[in-house]
Amino acid sequence: MTEATAQDAEQGVPEVIVADRQLIVCQGLGSLVAQMAQVRLGSFATDLASLRKALGARHGPAIVVLGVRLADADLGRVLETLRRDHPRVMVVVVAEESEFAFIRTAVKAGAHAVCMMGQVLTSLPRILGNLVEGHSLLPVEILKRLMGEQGDSLTRREHEILGLLVDGLTNFQISARLGLSENTVKYYLKAIYQKLDVNSRGGAIAKYVAGTY
C-alpha cells in the first residue's frame, strides 16, 4: 500500500472495488471512479474469489460497484456472500434497463443503490457521492415501492435456478452447483415453465431477464 493510499485509508476515504465478469467493463467503470476526489479506486474483480481477496486486503471503508454477473457467480450469490461476510460494505449494482430481474434481486438483497448502465456517466458519480455522505441516492425502501413487490410467484430456489439458466448452465451443472439431482432440477424447471407460461429454456430466460413474469 502506497503512502498516499495509507493516508486516505486513515482518513476514512472509501475504497471502490469494481466487479464484473468482463475486465473491460471494470476498466470503464474504474475510469469514472478514478476521477472522483471523495473516493479512491481499488482493485478490479472478475470472479468471486478475486472480489473476496480484494475485500480482505482493503483498509478502511469500501464500496463495491457490481455488475449483474461475475465469471463464477450470479448476482444473488455475490450479494448473499457480501451480506454474510462483509455486512458493512456498501454495494452499487450496475445493470441494463432490460435486466429487470437482476434489479429486483439487487433490491431484495439490500443493495444500497442501483445504477442504470445507460446513465452511468452521470449517475454513478452522483450515487457514490451520496454513499460517501452516508445516504443512498435511491434508498432501498423507495426502490421497492417503485418496482413493486406484487405477484412474484417464484420461490427462492426457482430464482436460483433461473439465475443459473441465464448464466448458461446445463441441468447437470445446475444440479452440481445446488446439490440437487438432475431429476429434481427437471422438476423445478417444469414448475418454472408453467409459472412463466413458456415451454422452453430460451423463453424462460427471456421472460426472467426482462422481468415480465
TrEMBL record:
Keywords from the UniProt entry: DNA-binding, Transcription, Transcription regulation
Gene Ontology annotations of biological process type: regulation of DNA-templated transcription
SMART domains the UniProt entry points to: HTH_LUXR
Keyword Nucleus on entry: no
One MF term in the entry's GO annotations: DNA binding
Domain of life, source organism: Bacteria
Residue ranges annotated for the HTH luxR-type domain, each copy included: 147-212
PANTHER family: DNA-BINDING TRANSCRIPTIONAL ACTIVATOR DEVR_DOSR
Protein name per UniProt: Two component transcriptional regulator, LuxR family
Species: Roseovarius tolerans
Top-level taxonomy: Bacteria, Pseudomonadati, Pseudomonadota, Alphaproteobacteria, Rhodobacterales
